[in-house]
From TrEMBL:
Its cofactor is Mn(2+); Mg(2+). Transmembrane segments: none annotated. Belongs to the DNA repair enzymes AP/ExoA family. It comes from Paracandidimonas soli. The keyword GTP-binding does not apply. This is Exodeoxyribonuclease-3. The record marks 147 as: Transition state stabilizer. The active site is at residues 104, 145, 246. Probably binds two magnesium or manganese ions per subunit. Mg(2+) binds at residues 7, 34, 145, 147, 245-246. Pfam families: Exo_endo_phos. Residues 4-246 form the Endonuclease/exonuclease/phosphatase domain.
Length: 255
DNA sequence: ATGGCTTGACCATCAAGA
């Protein structure tokens, strides 16, 4: 089984690239973030033409998430239960006996911003919900854009980023609190090349300089972590014409 | 020290991303 996540920064612009990628990389679930379109514009027909279906929670202009999968899931959940939020950042579906959660975690903007408060509150709500969800679904994967680089090795220039949003200690604690629920960072289950990143700024030739961050992650509950045989970042789409600033992360499970 | 792209909204700049 293969699970993948990709922040595509506008599904309208990136649809051809997503379809190409799926043809080259068949997966059991592709979690997409930053659709940037309302529900009625989700291109379900295009996915069906290549043998997939999807569940989505769209929003005009901002946010929006989807799970693209060969067969429909069950128990579709949009948003974090009990956390009122007009921003569409979460969708979950059960595929077989595996609970798949797709998340677009808030960016936070800066440590002084109200959006930073929102980010930390959002993470608290996510944590509370996942605690319950793990009781119901021991086999759980949560994939997405976390907007947190968990450690200095996930940052191209830790000194330059120190104390900034995406790497600040409270954010890293929020990430660690998810791991404390019994989840594992699939990427770190295996030896990995140094300076592995999943996002590079569009500006200043950041991709060419490999000036990136690893902020897109796949977290696995214990039974799935034990079954995980590989986790890779696919840098290829970042070299496309009109690329997303993020690139896919893929986990392979022996289930 | 600042902003450096890209997208969407809407047609001229601006918010937001990270």
């Amino acid at each position: 089984m293969k699970l993948a996540t990709w922040n595509i920064n506008s599904l309208k612009v990136r649809l051809p690239q997503v379809l190409d990628w799926l043809r080259a990389n068949p997966v059991d679930a592709l979690c997409l973030q930053e659709l940037k379109l309302s529900d009625e514009f989700f291109p379900i027909d295009a996915f069906q033409e290549i043998g997939y279906t999807a569940h989505w929670a769209g929003q005009k202009t901002y946010n929006g998430v989807a799970i693209v999968t060969p067969a429909p899931g069950t128990d579709i959940q949009k948003n974090i239960p009990g956390f009122e939020d007009p921003q569409q950042r979460v969708i979950a579906a059960t595929l077989g006996d595996i609970r798949v959660v797709c998340a677009y975690c808030p960016n936070g903007q800066s440590l002084e911003s109200d959006k930073y408060i929102y980010k930390l509150q959002w993470y608290e709500a996510l944590n509370r919900w996942l605690q319950e969800e793990l009781k119901r679904y021991p086999r759980l994967a949560i994939l997405g854009d976390y907007n947190i680089a968990p450690a200095d090795e996930d940052v191209h220039d830790p000194a330059k980023w120190e104390g900034d949003v995406l790497v600040s200690p409270p954010e890293r604690q929020a990430f660690q609190a998810l791991l404390s629920l019994g989840l594992s960072d699939a990427f770190r289950l295996f030896p990995q090349p140094e300076k592995s990143f999943s996002w590079w700024d569009y500006r200043r030739f950041a991709f060419r300089r490999n000036a990136g961050l690893r902020i897109d992650h796949i977290l696995l509950s214990a039974p799935l972590a034990q079954a995980c045989v590989a986790c890779e970042i696919d840098k290829a789409p970042r070299g496309n014409e009109q690329p997303s600033d993020h690139t896919p992360v893929i986990a392979t499970l022996a289930v």
